[in-house]
Design a protein that fits this description.
- With about 475 residues, the chain is mainly beta.
- The chain has 3 domains: about 50-155, Outer Surface Protein A, domain 3 (Alpha-Beta Complex), CATH 3.90.930.1; about 160-290 and about 305-325, no CATH class; about 330-464, no CATH class.
- It is built from 4 helices and 37 strands.
- The strands form 5 sheets. Strands 3-4-5-6-7-8-9-10-11-12-13-14-15-16 form a 14-stranded antiparallel beta sheet, with no helix packed on it. Strands 17, 18, 19, 20, 21, 22, 23, 25, 26 and 27 form a 10-stranded antiparallel beta sheet that branches. Strands 24-28-29-30-31-32-37-36 form an 8-stranded antiparallel beta sheet, with helices on one face.
- Strand 9 and strand 10 (about 85-90) form a beta hairpin.
- It is elongated.
C-alpha cells in the first residue's frame, strides 16, 4: 500500500508463501515498525528513525526493551514468561549507567531490589517477597547507612534508631467510627484536664479530636488517631515532657484510647487514657542528655493507663512488663550515667528515705527512682584525668534535682588513702581531694565514708 507515492506498509514472504517480515512506515517514509517472524523481533521507531521499543520473542519468553527518545540509549529491559513479568528487570539513566534492578516471578516482585545513583553507587537496596517489602532495606547516604526492617510490608524496627526510639506501624488502615454519640469532645477533654497538665501545640490537637458532640453528663470514649506525637508538660512549672505515643512513625497513624465520666453538676470528673508506651523527657534539672541524638534525657516505659480525677494527682498504672529504656545521661556535666533500671515517680512521693532532702521538694518531685545505674566520672591527679567507674542502686532524678548514693569499689590503704583499679592501672586517691572536685562541680549535701562490708567508698550527693 502507498500514500502520495510513499509505502505505508511492506511484507516479505518465503518460497512457501509464509510471511517473514512486516513493515509499517511514517508519512515521511521512514520505518515506523518492523517485525521479523523468524527471529521473533519487533522494533518501533519514531519519525526521525530513532528506536523507541524493541521486543524479542522466543517461545514463551519475551524480552522487551525501551529507549530514550533521540538518544538511542536503552532506558529499560524487561522479561516476560507466559506474558507475566519474570526474571531481572533493569532501568538505565540516559547516560547508559544502570539505574535499578528488580527480580520478578510470575508477575510479582520476589527477590533483590537495587537502586543506583548516576555515579553507579548503590543508593537503596532491599528485598521483596510476594510483591511487598521484606527484611532489611538499606539507604546509603554520604558514607552512612540507614537500615529499616520490614515484615509483611510494614516497618517493624529500624537498626540505627537513636537509643530508646521505636516505631509503630500497626495502624496502616484507618476506618471512621460508625457511631459518634459516645465520643469524647475535644473541648470537654481540655476543659476538664488538671491544671498541672500543660498541653503542647493545641491547634494541632483540635484536628485530632471530634468537637461539638458533648450534650450532657455520662461516660464518653475516644480513640485518638494521631499523625504526630502527642505530648504534655508537667507539673505547672514544666519540669518534664510526657509523650503518650513515643513510637509514632512518620507516614503512619498512631492511636491511644481515652475515656471520661463527666457530670456538669458535680466537681468530680474522671478521665482515663490508655497509652501502650510513654516517654518522659527531662526538660529541666541537672540530669541532662549525654546522647547527641537526644535533646533531653529520656526514659520510656510500657503503660496500662493514666487516670485523672478532677485536680487530684493522677493515678499511674504501669504494664506488667514495663520494658524500660533510658538514654545516656550526665549530671552537672560530670557524672555520666547509663541507667539500667528505674521506676517512674511522677505523681507520688518517693518511698525511699532521703533525710537530707526537704519534704517539700519530695512532695513536688517528678522524675524517676533509679535502682541500678553504671556511673563514670573523672579524677584529676597531677594534671592527668583518670576515669573512675562506680555503681548506683538508689537515686532520685527529676526536673528539679538529682540525689542519691553511689559506690566506688576500692581498697582502703590508710587514713583517707584509697586505691582503685582503672583502665590505666592502679590509682591512689584521697576522698578529700575527690570531695573538693565534686564541690567545684556544684554538688552539695556531700557525705563520703568507706564501707568495709562492700569494700567501697560510698558517696551521698545532691545536685540542683
Amino acid at each position: 500500500m502507498a500514500s502520495k507515492g510513499l509505502a505505508t506498509l511492506k511484507e516479505t514472504f518465503d518460497e512457501k508463501g509464509k510471511r517473514v517480515e512486516y513493515y509499517t512506515f511514517h508519512t515521511n517514509g521512514k520505518i515506523k515498525n518492523y517485525t521479523n517472524y523468524l527471529s521473533g523481533a519487533n522494533v518501533s521507531y519514531d519519525a526521525n528513525g530513532n528506536i523507541l521499543n524493541e521486543t524479542i520473542n522466543k517461545g514463551n519468553i519475551s524480552v522487551r526493551n525501551r529507549y530514550y527518545a533521540l538518544k538511542r540509549q536503552i532506558s529499560s529491559s524487561n522479561i516476560y514468561i507466559d506474558n507475566k513479568k519474570d526474571s531481572i528487570w533493569k532501568t538505565y539513566y540516559p547516560t547508559g549507567i544502570l539505574k535499578s534492578t528488580i527480580r520478578y516471578h510470575k508477575n510479582q516482585k520476589n527477590g533483590k531490589y537495587i537502586y543506583y545513583n548516576e555515579e553507579g553507587n548503590i543508593k537503596n537496596e532491599g528485598n521483596y517477597k510476594n510483591n511487598i517489602a521484606d527484611g532489611a532495606w538499606v539507604k546509603h547516604f554520604e558514607g552512612t547507612t540507614d537500615t529499616t526492617f520490614y515484615k509483611n510490608g510494614r516497618a517493624v524496627v529500624k537498626r540505627n534508631l537513636a537509643q530508646c526510639e521505636c516505631v509503630d506501624t500497626t495502624l496502616h488502615k484507618i476506618g471512621f467510627a460508625n457511631s459518634l454519640n459516645r465520643l469524647l469532645d475535644y473541648y470537654t477533654l481540655v476543659n476538664n484536664m488538671p491544671s498541672y497538665i500543660q498541653s503542647l501545640d493545641s491547634n494541632a490537637y483540635k484536628s485530632i479530636f471530634y468537637s461539638g458532640l458533648f450534650t450532657g453528663s455520662g461516660s464518653y470514649s475516644l480513640t485518638m488517631l494521631m499523625y504526630k506525637k502527642l505530648s504534655f508538660e508537667l507539673p505547672a512549672d514544666k519540669q518534664l515532657r510526657l509523650t503518650i505515643n513515643p513510637c509514632h512513625t512518620k507516614g503512619y497513624v498512631s492511636k491511644v484510647r481515652a475515656s471520661a465520666y463527666i457530670d456538669p453538676r458535680s466537681p468530680h470528673k474522671r478521665m482515663t487514657i490508655n497509652p501502650k508506651r510513654i516517654a518522659i523527657e527531662f526538660i529541666k534539672g541537672p540530669m541532662q542528655s549525654d546522647d547527641l541524638r537526644h535533646k533531653f534525657f529520656t526514659a520510656s516505659f510500657n503503660m496500662e493507663s493514666i487516670r485523672f480525677i478532677s485536680d487530684e494527682k493522677p493515678h499511674v498504672y504501669m504494664a506488667k512488663e514495663i520494658d524500660p529504656c533510658f538514654t545516656k545521661a550526665v549530671i552537672k556535666n560530670y557524672l555520666h550515667l547509663q541507667v539500667n533500671d528505674a521506676s517512674l515517680t511522677i505523681f507520688k512521693t518517693p518511698y525511699s528515705n532521703y533525710s537530707y532532702i526537704k519534704s517539700k521538694e519530695l512532695d513536688n518531685f517528678f522524675g524517676i527512682q533509679i535502682n541500678d545505674a553504671d556511673i563514670e566520672f573523672n579524677y584529676n591527679k597531677f594534671g592527668e584525668n583518670h576515669t573512675l567507674k562506680a555503681k548506683c542502686s538508689n537515686m532520685l532524678a527529676g526536673g528539679n534535682f538529682a540525689s542519691g548514693r553511689i559506690t566506688l569499689e576500692c581498697t582502703k590503704k590508710g587514713v583517707d588513702k584509697f586505691e582503685v583499679k582503672t583502665e590505666d592501672g592502679l590509682l591512689q586517691f584521697s576522698s578529700q581531694d575527690l570531695k573538693v572536685e565534686w564541690l567545684k562541680r556544684g554538688f552539695t549535701h556531700l557525705n563520703f565514708f568507706y564501707s568495709e562490708e562492700i569494700n567501697a567508698l560510698v558517696i551521698d550527693f545532691y545536685a540542683k
